[in-house]
Design brief:
231 residues; alpha+beta; 5-stranded antiparallel sheet; two-stranded antiparallel sheet; 6 helices
C-alpha cells in the first residue's frame, strides 16, 4: 500500500479509500486488467533489467522513429457489469513521466474496440501486454519523473490517482530503465514550460546531467499545463 501511495502522490489512508471506492464500482473477482501499449514502445526504454519483456513488441524493428512518448490503455473488467472501466496514460518515459490521462469511464466491448483504435491512432499500431508490464511502465515513469522533480498537478493529478487504481499495486522499483542513453532527455510539447523544466533539471541532476531539445520555442497562452516542477 505504501508503494502505490508514493507512486501516485497520496497518503496510504487516501489510497485505501480510493481502492475501497473502486472495489464498490468494479466488483470482486475482476482479476488482472487488460492492457495495451503502442507498437515500438520498447525502443523508448531500457529493458536490460527486464529481458522477459523484450519480445513483446513485434513492431519495434519497423518503428520509423524513436520517441519518448509511450501510451498505455487499461481495461478493468467487473464481475457486476458487462462494461469495463477504461483508462489511459500518455507517458514521457525520457523525463516528465505522466503527461496526460484519460480518466476512467465504463465502456462496452464494442465501444472499447473503437476507442482503442482512436487512442493509438497517433502511433504505429498497438499490442496487448501483461498487467505487470503496464504497471512497470506507468508507475516506473511516474517515479522516475518524481525523482527529477516533476509531478502531475491539479486536475491531471486527480485523474492519475483515479486511473492508477485500475492497474493495482506496482512492483517497486520498476525493472525498466527510463531516460535516454542513461540521462533525462527533455523534448517539450506545446503545453510545456521549457524554462521551468530546464531549471528543475539543473537543480536536481546538474548542468551535465541531462539533455534537452526545444521543439516549440513559445508556449501557447490560455492552455493548462499538464505537469509542473515540484516546489
Amino acid at each position: 500500500m505504501k508503494t502505490i501511495a508514493r507512486a501516485v502522490g497520496m497518503s496510504a489512508g487516501d489510497v485505501v479509500g480510493v481502492l475501497n471506492d473502486a472495489a464498490a464500482v468494479l466488483g470482486p473477482g475482476r482479476g488482472e486488467p487488460r492492457c495495451w501499449v503502442n507498437a515500438g514502445w520498447s525502443r523508448s526504454v531500457d529493458l536490460g533489467g527486464a529481458p522477459r519483456w523484450a519480445g513483446l513488441d513485434p513492431g519495434a524493428a519497423d518503428a520509423e522513429e524513436v520517441r519518448g512518448l509511450v501510451a498505455v490503455l487499461v481495461a478493468a473488467d467487473s464481475a457486476r457489469s458487462t462494461k469495463a472501466q477504461v483508462a489511459g496514460f500518455l507517458l514521457d518515459v525520457w523525463c516528465l513521466g505522466v503527461k496526460n490521462v484519460h480518466a476512467p469511464e465504463p465502456m462496452s466491448e464494442s465501444r472499447l474496440a473503437g476507442h482503442r483504435g482512436l487512442y493509438f491512432s497517433a502511433f504505429e499500431g498497438h499490442v496487448q501486454i501483461p498487467a505487470d508490464l503496464a504497471r512497470a511502465l506507468v508507475f516506473g515513469a511516474s517515479a522516475y519523473a518524481g525523482d527529477l522533480g516533476f509531478e502531475p498537478e491539479g486536475e491531471l493529478a486527480e485523474e492519475f490517482k483515479d486511473a492508477a487504481v485500475l492497474l493495482g499495486e506496482p512492483v517497486d522499483p520498476s525493472p525498466i530503465g527510463f531516460g535516454r542513453d542513461g540521462k533525462p532527455f527533455f523534448v517539450n510539447g506545446p503545453y510545456d514550460d521549457p524554462e521551468a523544466v530546464v531549471r528543475t533539471l539543473r537543480r536536481t541532476v546538474g548542468d551535465d546531467g541531462f539533455h534537452f531539445e526545444i521543439a516549440f520555442p513559445e508556449q501557447p497562452s490560455g492552455r493548462r499545463r499538464l505537469f509542473g516542477p515540484r516546489r
